[in-house]
Amino acid sequence: ASESSLNEEDGLQVFLWWLLGIAALTFALLMSARMGIFQETLYKRFGKHSKEALFYNHALPLPGFLLLAPNIYQHAVLFSQSEPFQVPVLGLTLPIMWFYLFMNVLTQYVCIRGVFILTTECTSLTVTLVVTLRKFVSLIFSILYFHNPFTAWHWLGTALVFLGTLMYTEVWNSLGPFLARCRKRPKEE
């Protein structure tokens, strides 16, 4: 929309794609919450086994990747052709794209393992809130790292995230007695 050559139809098309993106993110959030409720039900019925749940959630979809085998192979070849990189601590040299992939897999494993452990300890609503806050922090980091503008929509989203978090943690209820005690204290002269 920043280009002056865009006409009204193009602006409408961009807006519709934006709405589609928002709808997809909303749907993903709702499905994630539904999966959390399903996991909570399974944990109540069969016991809390976060490692087992993590394994089955990631092992069962693996055969589906066979449909993408040619594309995966093509990208493996491209990764192997990337510039060499020496891993600092190990002194090992490998193509940088393989290093990036390995680091991504490692950090994703740590993150998802934490989420699965959290599902055994907290309610699904708490897990959904924590995951949403993590996504929010990632978004803020991305905006700062890539020097993207922080628009009014970002401020609105920030306000809604914090408002929702405060409502869920019931900070308002705990502030009431605290403020009442502060008002009753005698003033020191």
TrEMBL record:
Keyword Transmembrane helix: yes
SUPFAM superfamilies assigned: Multidrug resistance efflux transporter EmrE (SSF103481)
Transmembrane segments: 15-33, 54-73, 85-103, 115-146, 152-175
Cellular component, GO annotation: endoplasmic reticulum membrane; Golgi membrane
GO molecular function terms listed in the Swiss-Prot or TrEMBL record: UDP-N-acetylglucosamine transmembrane transporter activity; UDP-xylose transmembrane transporter activity
Keyword Magnesium applies: no
Keywords: Membrane, Sugar transport, Transmembrane, Transmembrane helix, Transport
Principal place of residence: membrane
Annotated compartments: Endomembrane system
Pfam families: UAA
Membrane topology qualifier: Multi-pass membrane protein
Family, as annotated: Belongs to the nucleotide-sugar transporter family. SLC35B subfamily.
PANTHER family (alphabetical): NUCLEOTIDE SUGAR TRANSPORTER SLC35B4 (PTHR10778:SF4), SOLUTE CARRIER FAMILY 35 MEMBER B (PTHR10778)
Protein name as it appears in the record: Solute carrier family 35 member B4
Organism of provenance: Pitta sordida
This protein's encoding gene: Slc35b4
